[in-house]
Amino acid sequence: LLAEYASERDLPAETKDGFKVDLLMNAGLLVDLPSLDKTGAEGIGLFRTEFQFMVSPVLPKVDEQTKIYKTALDIAGDRPVVFRTLDIGGDKQVPFLPRDEEENPAMGWRAIRVALDRPALLRFQLRALLYAASGKTLYVMFPMIAEVAEFRRCRVIMQKEIERLKKFGKVPPVAVKIGCMLEVPALSWQLDILLKEIDFLSIGTNDLMQFFFACDRSNPRLADRYDLLAPSVLAFLHMIFKACAEANVPVTLCGEMGGRPIEAMALVALGLRRISISPTSIGPVKRMIRSVHMGQLQQFLLSNIGSPEHSIRDSLVHFARDHGI
Ligand code: PEP
Ligand code: MG
User: Fold this and answer.
1) What pLDDT was estimated at residue 1?
2) Fewer CB atoms inside 10 Å of the end CB: C or N, the chain?
3) Which residues form a coiled coil (predicted)?
């Protein structure tokens, strides 16, 4: 799949009428990193740090964590790498953290909930990230934040680690950008406060949509039950993109949704300008963006978003076909 799009690797993801979209890739292990050059991704918009923990029989020490993060930053060079702190629990189990059986693990003791209950885990990880990004810009975001108060607790812990770094005379990152994932619907009703406090927002639609529709993301029986091109989804995301634009806060979408060309087409029409997707999706999404005329697409989408239908997928597919996309 990568080879088919190789000739477009260095072309910008820009619409026919000149709207530029940043395409970044998702990664989690060092083996993913060569895809940066192969795909021409503009950086790593989501580095899932839990993968290192999932493949290790014991808790990785600070220096082992530092090594992975530093290697990722070195390979990325001038391109940004956005590290997401541990998202363990739910579907991502680690061998060294004993836990109770849960009735609803996706809504259970996972991600930031574990980190805030076991702050040493988070502190060591932030320490490793700060060491790794010495002299560079560090981007860190926190998963499954449900309320502003949780984000603030994370920021306090980060601040403590930055103070500690200075106390020990280590070279700090040139800048530390702290972001938040939007994966829990509740947080979208605190956007006005949140957007004043974060450096960037990243929308994790895999989780966000399972809670939006109350529909398990891993249950094959429900896989086709709801469509992410439902008017309700598009109206919800449109509201979030607008709030970010008004607050001047960069927003990325890093769920699988952004890697599907028709979905990505709808998202850019709603104002999204930064998508982080799996490496194999970069080529197809870039090709779609380069064949779109934003003005026409926007007009079409905004006139369909109020539809009472289950999904506007069919009309979008028709639009794409009619316009040679
Ligand atoms: C998401 O929920 O959309 C996301 C990007 O995180 P993950 O898939 O790792 O849960
Ligand atoms: Mg998630």
Assistant:
1) 63
2) N
3) none
